[in-house]
Amino acid sequence: MIKKKKKKSYTEVYALGQYISMSAHKARRVIDQIRGRSYEEALMILELMPYRGCYPIFKLVYSAAANASHNKGFKETNLVISKAEVNQGNTVKKLKPRARGRSYPIKRSTCHITIVLEDISFYQQYEEYLMYLKKPGCSNENRNLTCYDTYTYTYSSGGLWDKK
Sorted alphabetically, which InterPro entries does this protein's record hold (predicted)? Predict the structure, then answer.
């Protein structure tokens, strides 16, 4: 089996928190609120939400932003949470003593949280470049492309579907 190498993205930075002592279901409730939002907006939402799972997620978002500014030199105002996912981790099983010499199982669930921040300033510069190419004075050979619909373009007019 050949593994495909994932294409390296130069605009993404991530932080990974493993074995966080919280159920994945409770963490997803918080993560769904911040997915797709800007970095600053996500921090405000996490500070004001009343759930216990907000604090470790807040620390992860903050850590991902610190990675972005330190390792790649991105500005925090241009960061957006592009991907946030929660996976179930190991379950720690213990036994608690109860009355009459019996035992009661305790299951402590853990989760793995991944926060991916993306720098949107790159895409804004790319859009500005595309707008520059569309200016009338700009010379671009690939500007006038002809597109054909493969279903309505018939053989008699030199179409793609030639039945012989």
Answer: Ribosomal_uL22, Ribosomal_uL22_bac/chlpt-type, Ribosomal_uL22_bac/org-type, Ribosomal_uL22_CS, Ribosomal_uL22_sf
